[in-house]
Amino acid sequence: MSSLSNLLIPAVLFFALGAIARIIKSDLRFPPDLAKVLSIYLLMAIGLHGGYELAKSDLVTAVNAIVWALILGFSLPILGYLALLLTRKVSPMDAAAISAHYGSVSAGTFLTAIAFLDSSGVEYESYPLIMLAVMESPAIIVGLILAAMARKKMAAASEPFVANVDGTASAYDGNDNSSGFSHLMRDAFTNGSVVVLIGSMVIGAIAQPSGIQKLMPFIDEIFMGVLCLFLFEMGMEAARRIKEFKKVGMVLGLFGIVMPLVGGIVGALVGHSVLGFSVGGATLVAVLGASASYIAVPPAMRLAVPEANPSFYLTLSLGITFPFNVLIGIPLYYWFVQYLAGV
Amino acid sequence: MPNLFPHKLVNVITIDVLQDKLREMFRRHGVSGYTIIRVRGEGACGESAGTLDFEASIMVKVILPEEKLQRLLDGLQRQIAKGYHLTIFVQDVQVISPEKFSKPMD
Known about the structure:
The complex is a heterodimer. By secondary structure, chain A is mainly alpha-helical. Chain A contains 16 helices and no strands. Chain A has helices spanning 4-7, 10-23, 34-54, 59-87, 92-103, 107-119, 127-135, 138-156, 181-190, 192-206, 209-221, 223-240, 245-274, 279-290, 297-304, 310-341. By secondary structure, chain B is of the alpha+beta class. Chain B has one domain (5-101): Alpha-Beta Plaits (2-Layer Sandwich), CATH 3.30.70. Chain B contains 2 helices and 6 strands. In chain B, strands 2-5-1-6 form a 4-stranded antiparallel β-sheet. The N and C termini of chain B lie far apart (34 Å). The interface between A and B is medium-sized, with 28 and 26 residues.
């Protein structure tokens, strides 16, 4: 499988077109909120589809997949955090915020991987879809805990900065609980994309099959076209980050490529060796391990870890890791899983 | 000469995700109401094009009597001390019904 075939998927080509449009300073602009509309559609369609398939699947495997999604979601950000601290290029706050992005997942990358598998005619299980839903939140929680620990340490080392006992930044105004820990935990689990995805999966699982069949033109036939539009815009967003590369620097930039590779290998091993998925299914788990969030986690970190610099985590996840995964990572993880499976 | 009463208009430009926090703060300070506008621009945090959710910037406008101003500004200052980026400026305005701005929100 040459990586060229991934590049020639329409969705990926549109991603490139978006990037080029931005680079040549085209006046092309998508209407505000379009990306949001498209991502709600994509999550809803994939959720309905997956829920419909999952209703027919094996409960033990599904529970197993959820447990491993949690393990990945909690452990990958800790790994990323330690690696970032070792680089000595960022503050602990920045490290906490960045690693939260890498532990969480990118639905855009996941969907691109599905487009890749579809176009290569590779079958895949629907379990990785539950893992996608499960893996959105744990990394946010780990990121918050890491940031709270770092904040506490900084507060202990004197500073005019006063932190709460639990380390949240809300110490100044007593009854201001909008950044309180429990509040943020709730936010992590009631996050819009989690609600759309899990809600649609439940609807897909319990709705009358004939009803779902009627929805197929909406959730199936136009799906790849919407994905093209979405990636078109994301290509523009990713290229907008290019001018920030200098601020991020070599070492951090390298992290944006090495971390997905490590996450991809771990994910491939979990998908293939632990969960026993097919090549297609294990590739999707690898993509989950490799991808970094750029929709759900940034607002959470902006709110909860204001000390971290958004241009670090946004440039890394959206400007470096996302294009890397879309263009190179996905075929690479697919190749690695094939190698594991001895195909 | 119309009957006008001097008040203060506080403008806050910040990120969308701070909305709930600010709303909570206004409530605590007995503010009578506020207006939020979505805005675009460029500044210390780089360009805010507002195409993606997490980058959306907002401008919050609050009119209040001068005696409530300092407390609110202190509260906003504390958010800045925590690391949030807020651009704040205050204008003198004149209102025709001052009683409207002394009633706290429900």
